[in-house]
Amino acid sequence: MKIAVFSAQPYDRRFLDEALQRRHADGAVTLQYHAEALSLESVALAQGCGAVCVFVNDVLDAAVLDALAGQGVRAVLLRCAGFNNVDAAAAARLGLFVARVPAYSPEAVAEFTLALVLTLNRNTHRAYARVREGNFALDGLLGSNLHGKTVGLIGLGKIGVAAARIFHGFGCRVLGHDPAPLPGYAQFGATVALPELLAQSDIVSLHCPLLPGTRHMIAAAALASMKPGAMLVNTSRGGLVDACAVIDALKSRHLGALAIDVYEQESELFFHDHSADIIADDVFQRLLTFPNVLVTGHQGFFTIEAMREIAVTTFGNLADHLAGRPCPNVVAGTV
C-alpha cells in the first residue's frame, strides 16, 4: 500500500521512516511525502494511494473526502489528537477509516504549558534579549512566585491531568473544569464550575478539544469574568479563543498576560518560515505588539518521545485497518 503523507516536514520523515522500517521492512507499505497541506487543490497528489496521513491544518471537509474516496483512498491516518478538521459525517457516508493519535506523550504539552507560564511570568524571554545587547538592568522584569497561585485547567483529559500534576508540584492551588474528568485528577485539585474557575484563577490554561460547543469559549464574556490581571494560556486549539476579544482585554489591561502556542488562523502561518514575508493577518500582528504576550508556533507536542509515539501509533492504526480488526483510535462519528 502507498500512503500519501501531507504537510510533511523533515522531522516527520525522520520518525515515520524509523517506524516504517521497524514495522514494514518488507516494503509492503511505502510513503510518498508531500510538503503541501491537503486541500481540494492538492488532493490529486494522493492518486494511486490507499491511505493519506495528515496533520492538524490539513483540510478534510466533505469535498476533499469525496475526492479522496473517488481516487481509491480508503483510510485517513491523523498524526495528531485533534480531529476538528475532519467532516466525520462525510467520512462515515464514504466508508472511510479515520483514526487519530489520542495520546502521544501528554507530558510534552503539559511541560510546554509550564514553560510558557514561567517564561511569561518571569520575563525570561525579555531578559535573554536584553543581556545579548549588554543590558543587565532588572527594571521591567519583575515577576511573581508561581508557588501559591491558583491555576485553572479547562479540560481534564490526559494532558490536563499531566498539567495538574506539574502545577500541584509547584505548590499551586489547582482548579479544574471538565464534564468528564479523568479519575487521576482528584489527587491534584478540585473540580469546579467554569464561572468559578475563571473568577478565581491567576492562570487559566486550556486543554480541551475544539468542538462546536467549545469554539470561542474564551470570548468577551469569559474574559470579563476572569480575575483582573490573570494570565491566559492556550496550548490546545486556536479556535477555543476569540483573538479579537483577547486584544480588547489586553488593551483594557483586564487580561494581564497571554501565552499561545496555537492560533485560529494558524494554517496560513505555522510550520513554515515566513521571516522574509509580510504577514497580512492584522489580528496576529496586533497580538505580537503586546509586551505581555508570548506566541510560539504550535510546538507544544514537539519532543522526541512524542514524535516517536505519533509514528508508532499511526502505523498501529494502519495495521488495524489492514487486518480488518477494531481500532481503539477510530474518530468518533466516522463509523
Outline the structure in words.
With 335 residues, the protein is an alpha/beta fold. The chain folds into two domains: 124 residues, 3-Layer(aba) Sandwich (Rossmann fold); 190 residues, Rossmann fold, CATH 3.40.50. It contains eleven helices and twelve strands. It is globular, with a radius of gyration of 21 Å.
Structural features:
35% helix; 11 helices; 7-stranded parallel beta sheet; alpha/beta; globular; 5-stranded parallel beta sheet; Rossmann fold; 335 residues; single chain; 12 strands
Topology summary:
Elements: E1 2-5, H1 10-23, E2 30-33, E3 51-54, H2 62-70, E4 75-78, H3 88-94, E5 97-99, H4 106-122, H5 124-132, E6 150-154, H6 158-169, E7 173-177, E8 190-191, H7 194-200, E9 203-206, H8 220-225, E10 230-234, H9 243-251, E11 255-260, H10 282-287, E12 293-295, H11 304-323
Parallel strand pairs: 1-2, 1-3, 3-4, 4-5, 6-7, 6-9, 7-8, 9-10, 10-11, 11-12
Helix pairs in contact: 1-11, 2-3, 4-6
User: Strand-residue fraction?
Assistant: 5-15%
Shape: globular
Helical content stands at: 25-40%
Helices and strands, in N-to-C order? EHEEHEHEHHEHEEHEHEHEHEH
Uncertain runs with pLDDT below 50, 5 residues or more? none
Number of strands: 12
Summarize the structure.
The protein has 2 domains: 2-104 and 303-323, Rossmann fold, CATH 3.40.50.720; 106-295, NAD(P)-binding Rossmann-like Domain (Rossmann fold, 3-Layer(aba) Sandwich). Helix content is 35%, strand content 15%.
